[in-house]
């Protein structure tokens, strides 16, 4: 589903991704871990065309997401192509960024209606089913300010899913939540993983990574230091950097 080859990304003189090679298979769940500043968010953003690469290539579902050094889109990809590709990837952020002036249901239906030009009659059943799936069927008419952070994040997940993406990217989806609200969000993510969704999840929830991830990838300083099944990377890390990171987060 995702193939990254030699991906480089700099901000000014700061090189943040130093040649990333990473493949994610269809249906695979990859948890990306590493210290703050190691480049995890930037990596996710590159996958979804939110950053221009300074080198390397990315393919999502066999479509290239690369740019050359001048920022020209490779393979003569038009802006429209990029927008279309982007609709196939759902992204969930630490801060859920729901539209405050719209009900939960309208938040979920907005992108399918405006971007995919789907009729309300077509989107509504799907939106309602997704609200059910994230355990918020009774909140359809509520406004975001009346929901807890955990509920808002579950709405944000439903909103992303309503675009029927092939790939879901999560960037620390539970980091901004009070501890007692984390579990419900992780349950939704676990169910999604079990349903066969391809997922790349940046998280500090090691329990989730151990239980749900097919593979854990540890990043440090813009590079992948170590990756493998959770039992290996979390249970028996080979690199000193991984060991010290894990002892710090545990
Ligand atoms: P992580 O998600 O692992 O904490 P990030 O990918 O957010 O790491 O950031 C990696 C590094 O890149 C950090 O040093 C951060 O300050 C820097 N960085 C990220 N985005 C930008 C940006 N838009 N402009 C300048 N520096 C950035
Ligand atoms: Mg980050």
Describe this entry's structure for a reader.
By secondary structure, the chain is of the alpha/beta class. It has a domain at 98-164. Helices cover 36% and strands 24% of the residues. The protein has helices spanning 40-47, 79-86, 104-114, 120-133, 149-161, 179-194, 206-212, 230-233, 240-249, and strands spanning 2-11, 14-24, 29-34, 55-60, 63-64, 89-92, 167-171, 198-202, 215-220, 223-228. The protein has a 6-stranded mixed beta sheet with strand order 6-7-8-3-9-10, sandwiched between helices. A 4-stranded antiparallel beta sheet has the order 2-1-4-5, with helices on one face. The site of adenosine-5'-diphosphate has 11 residues, from β2 and α1.
**Low-confidence runs of at least 5 consecutive residues:** none
Specify the biggest β-sheet: 6 strands, mixed
Beta-strand share of residues = 15-25%
What small molecules does the structure contain? adenosine-5'-diphosphate, magnesium ion
Strand order of the largest sheet: 6-7-8-3-9-10
- Helical content class: 25-40%
Number of helices: 9
* Element pattern in H and E: EEEHEEHEHHHEHEHEEHH
Shape: globular
Structural class designation:
alpha/beta
**Radius of gyration from CA coordinates:** 18 Å
The first-to-last residue Cα distance is 31 Å
Number of strands: 10
The overall pLDDT, averaged over residues, is: 92
């Amino acid at each position: 589903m995702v193939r990254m080859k030699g991906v480089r990304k700099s901000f000014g003189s700061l090189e943040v991704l130093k040649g990333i090679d990473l493949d994610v298979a269809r249906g695979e769940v990859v948890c990306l871990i590493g210290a703050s500043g190691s480049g995890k968010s930037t990596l996710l953003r590159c996958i979804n065309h939110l950053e221009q690469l300074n080198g390397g290539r990315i393919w999502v579902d066999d479509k290239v997401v690369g740019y050359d050094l001048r920022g020209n889109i490779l393979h003569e990809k038009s802006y429209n192509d990029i927008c279309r590709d982007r609709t196939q990837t759902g992204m969930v952020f630490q801060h859920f960024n729901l539209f405050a002036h719209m009900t939960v249901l309208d938040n979920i239906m907005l992108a399918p209606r405006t971007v995919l030009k789907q009729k309300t009659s077509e989107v509504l059943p799907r939106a309602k089913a997704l609200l059910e799936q994230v355990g918020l069927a009774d909140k359809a008419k509520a406004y975001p300010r009346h929901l807890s952070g955990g509920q808002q994040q579950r709405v944000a997940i439903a909103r992303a899913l309503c675009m029927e993406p092939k790939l879901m990217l999560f960037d620390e989806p539970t980091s901004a939540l009070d501890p007692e609200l984390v579990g419900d969000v992780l349950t939704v993510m676990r169910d999604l993983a079990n349903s066969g969704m391809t997922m790349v999840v940046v998280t500090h929830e090691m329990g989730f990574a151990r239980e749900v991830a097919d593979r854990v990838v540890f990043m440090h300083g813009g590079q992948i230091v170590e990756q493998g099944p959770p039992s290996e990377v979390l249970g028996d890390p080979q690199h000193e950097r991984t060991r010290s990171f894990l002892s710090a987060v545990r």
